[in-house]
Write a structure and sequence with these properties.
With 415 residues, the chain is of the alpha+beta class. 41% of the residues lie in helices and 26% in strands.
């Protein structure tokens, strides 16, 4: 019986990686409690567990007396002599006997097994908790085994990992059975065991992907200084080379973009801007807002604010689609960025445009009105200004504004 007990838990040692000494101590503790249940609190005993042999031995120590008053702690000299002990023992000495496991009774043995199972489950939970605590911030690879309404359950080394909705990349499609990569973001203890949260939307996931794909980052030659990310949409990452001979951005992008494309594919085609970091906040802000061209940047370093002046035609580039470019630039640099628009003077345009070339955009009626009032080129219209054009019969405020928007857009397209 004792061999079966030890062997069943020795199997757990092999399967779960539980330390043999830890398990032996638990067995000693559990069977010690059984001895106490049978022989009382005052009983003197010793439990010896040999995991290698698959053996449990229980030894009970009792005092040899003439008349037994407490059978749990005493044994009569007559009983000792009957047992034919090789050593001649006398009254007052201790008698040590091996307890037959079956004498403890089936109920106590069943209780021992239940207690052992409970202890093993607790140890197993603790092992899993500690294992994933060590993996915090690291990438794990698992298989999706269940897709819920908001959460994805991932199997990793037979352990359940949770990918909540807010840690997923928006609009990313998941299929049961497919392999998925994510970082371990949080490990906490729950009622039924450790809860392991993983993430694909965290900045750390992007950082780890760069470390995997770009050896120079893994080796510390290139340092990631800052990351700003809107998962599934766009990300900006600032890098700096510790070796002047190595171009940080070029190393991250790779030959024909092969390195950065591997990361983009992993992130569901998230656009990634890699820029060179600078200690100078003005230069850093300029690079963060690329590809827009800025005319001036005024800094308030105390309040971490920056006022950026740029031509009107550059504002859409600064802001980006749905404002994503400027939001990421603010996250990356740590500055609150405000934009001042500056209308471009017509004198700055390098080439004029004949109105005949804009006839289709302006419409025949407006084109003929302008030509009849001796406006032959786009710059002539800009020089005249809105007030002069409003004097022309047939041109109201809305049409004048439309004319100027059309002409300005043509110059912006040429740039």
């Amino acid at each position: 019986m004792n061999y079966d007990i030890v062997e069943s838990f020795a199997q757990m040692v092999r399967d779960k990686g539980i330390d043999k000494d830890v398990l032996a101590n638990i067995l000693e503790e559990i069977f010690g409690l059984l001895v106490i249940k049978k022989y009382g609190e005052e009983a003197k005993y010793d439990v010896v567990v040999n995991m290698d042999r698959g053996d449990i031995e229980i030894f009970l120590e009792r005092e040899i007396v003439e008349v037994v008053e407490n059978p749990n702690t005493q044994i009569s000299i007559d009983e000792v002599n009957k047992r034919g002990n090789e050593d001649e023992l006398e009254v007052g000495e201790d008698y040590v006997e091996k307890v037959d496991m079956s004498s403890l009774g089936r109920r106590l043995i069943t209780l021992a097994k239940q207690n052992l199972n409970q202890k093993i489950r607790e140890i197993e939970k603790e092992i899993i908790y500690n294992e994933y605590k060590e993996l915090l911030g690291e990438i794990v690879v698992g298989d999706i085994y269940q897709i819920r309404k908001n959460d994805i359950l991932v199997n990793h080394n037979k352990n359940e990992l949770l990918l909540p909705r807010h840690e997923q990349i928006p609009y990313e499609r998941y299929k049961k059975g497919e392999t998925i990569r994510a970082i371990v973001k949080e490990v906490k203890k729950g009622n039924s065991g450790p809860v392991i949260l993983i993430s694909r939307s965290d900045n750390m996931f992007l950082r780890r992907l760069f470390e995997i794909e770009i050896p120079e980052i893994y080796d510390g030659i290139i340092e990631i200084k800052a990351i700003a990310r809107e998962p599934g949409e766009r990300a900006k990452i600032a890098v700096e080379s510790q070796d002047k001979r190595i171009d940080a951005v070029g190393a991250c992008v790779g030959m024909k973009g092969v390195r950065i494309h591997a990361i983009v594919r992993e992130l569901n085609n998230e656009n990634i801007d890699v820029i060179n970091y600078s200690d100078d906040p003005i230069i850093f802000i300029q690079r963060a807002l690329a590809p827009a061209k800025l005319k001036q940047i005024e800094l308030d370093e105390t309040d971490r604010k920056a006022v950026v002046t740029a031509d009107t035609n550059q504002v859409s580039l600064i802001v980006g689609r749905n404002g994503v470019n400027i939001r990421l630039a603010m996250k990356l640099t740590g500055y609150d960025i405000e934009i001042l628009r500056e209308e471009k003077a017509f004198e700055e345009y390098e080439e004029d445009i004949e109105l005949i070339d804009l006839k289709e955009e302006l419409g025949t009626d407006i084109y003929e009105l302008l030509i009849n009032h001796r406006y032959d080129t786009a710059i002539e219209v800009l020089k005249a200004g809105p007030e002069k054009l409003r004097e022309i019969e047939g041109l109201d405020e809305a049409k004048v504004e439309e004319i100027f928007e059309i002409i300005k857009s043509q110059f912006e397209e040429e740039e």
